[in-house]
Design a protein that fits this description.
CATH architecture of the largest domain: 3-Layer(aba) Sandwich
GO molecular function: hydrolase activity
Protein name: 4140_t:CDS:1
Structural class: alpha/beta
Pfam family, one: DLH
Distance between the termini: 68 Å
Largest sheet: 8 strands, mixed
Number of strands: 14
InterPro entries: AB_hydrolase_fold (IPR029058), Cyclase_SnoaL-like (IPR009959), Dienelactn_hydro (IPR002925), NTF2-like_dom_sf (IPR032710)
Number of domains: 2
């Protein structure tokens, strides 16, 4: 099987311009669409190398040039940026189109590159993303010239008049998408920044939006529903721990929210799946599908899980001896993919309902329900609002 590979390469522009280093990350398939990554300071760090590797896991051949010591003003700047594109375009591993992502100073370069009137450049770069351009006011005219799909992520604190001018100038260009992120500062998406949870939410949202643009224009495309089905098959039918974790990235995690069971990383997940999940499900366990929503990098699977509590079910009822009670619970899984591998699973259900059904919680006087919530989801014919003692009908 092919593996991800990374290396430092050298880019030499035409016209005898000075060479400069670049980091190259290739997908495990060995080839794919090209992606240029331009960072806040146009440099390379270990964190940025790891970021490039993550994008390669999405299926891209990623080139990160180090332009930190080079002036990009005037014709020299055009020479260097054209050199980057030509270098990536000529790599045998690059199959298909080329996209570009820039942040900070790199965003300004990405905008100018996408807006370039050069027919060669315009044809080579199919789409682009800019995070918080450093000279947004100066880039407004350039953005208006862009004729390909392009996305702009704006941090909080951007001058309101400049934002308004930007929106007005691009309002007639349906290829330009602009997103704002209240409460986050310049540099929020940099891998060099340890973002608090509330900022990480913005980082994740911006990433998925960017990925949607790249996938739509360049691919690669993966059947996420089929990949999820295969993962479930290994868990519940084959009961094969090794094959289950092979469907996941090395740093994947699983979080059963109500019981806080699961694992982080391949080694931890192997232990969890083998000792506390795959062989801990009663023999009559079954899943009744309700709905499935497919996104660009996520699957949301809604189902009813049914089983007889004939053995300790560690992930749902850890430490609780078998009660031989029948349990049926609505359950939702949000599966995040990185390329064709699972990156995370968030699993939600109503633990109070489970405890009611096995007799550990008396629902009298409490706003909770037992197995009837699953029946209501499946049939839609049960009475609603029975817990609302003062339910009012509109006159």
């Amino acid at each position: 099987m092919s593996t991800h590979s990374e290396q430092i390469t050298t880019v030499t522009p035409e016209n005898d311009g000075p060479s400069f280093p670049a980091f190259l990350a290739k997908p495990k398939e060995g080839s794919g669409p090209g992606l240029i990554l331009l960072t806040e300071n146009l440099d390379i760090s270990q964190e940025i190398e790891r970021e490039a590797i993550l994008f390669s896991q999405e299926g891209y051949v990623v080139l990160v040039p180090d332009l930190s010591t080079i002036s990009l003003d005037g014709q020299d700047g055009n020479m260097y940026t054209s050199g980057i594109i030509n270098h990536l375009a000529n790599l045998p591993e690059k199959i298909g189109k080329i996209g570009i992502i820039g942040r900070g100073r790199g965003a300004s370069v990405a905008i100018k590159l996408a807006a370039s009137a050069s027919s060669t450049t315009q044809a080579a770069v199919s789409c682009g993303v800019a995070y918080y351009p450093t000279n947004l006011k100066e880039e407004i005219l350039e953005l208006a010239k862009i004729k390909g799909p392009f996305m702009v992520h704006l941090a909080d604190g951007c001058d309101e008049s400049i934002k308004e001018e930007l929106k007005n100038s691009t309002s007639q260009n349906n290829l330009i998408s602009i997103f704002e992120y209240p409460g986050v500062d310049y540099g929020f998406a940099s891998p060099n920044v340890q973002a608090p949870p509330e900022v990480q939410t913005a980082v994740n949202t911006a990433y998925t939006r960017s990925l949607r643009l790249l996938k739509k224009i360049m691919g690669p495309y993966y059947d996420l529903s089929a990949l999820w089905d295969k993962h479930i098959e290994y868990e519940f039918l084959a009961k094969d721990t090794q094959k289950t974790v092979e469907t996941m990235v090395e740093d994947a995690y699983v979080n059963h929210i109500p019981t806080m069971t699961g694992g982080v990383g391949r080694e931890h997940l192997e232990q969890f799946y083998h000792n506390h999940f795959i062989h801990s499900n009663p023999t009559d366990t079954r899943m009744i599908p309700i709905s499935r929503t497919i996104g660009i990098d996520r699957v949301v699977d809604e189902m009813v899980v049914c089983f007889t509590h004939t053995q300790e079910v560690d992930w749902i009822l850890p430490g609780i001896p078998p009660t031989n009670k029948y349990v049926q619970i609505p359950l939702v899984v949000i599966i995040h993919f990185r390329g064709d591998k699972l990156c995370s699973e968030h699993i939600y259900w109503d633990q109070a309902s489970v405890l009611v059904q096995i007799g550990l919680l008396n629902k009298e006087g409490l706003p909770v329900t037992g197995g009837e919530q699953a029946e209501n989801l499946l049939s839609k014919n049960l009475k609603n609002n029975e817990l609302l003692k003062k339910f009012k009908k509109t006159e």
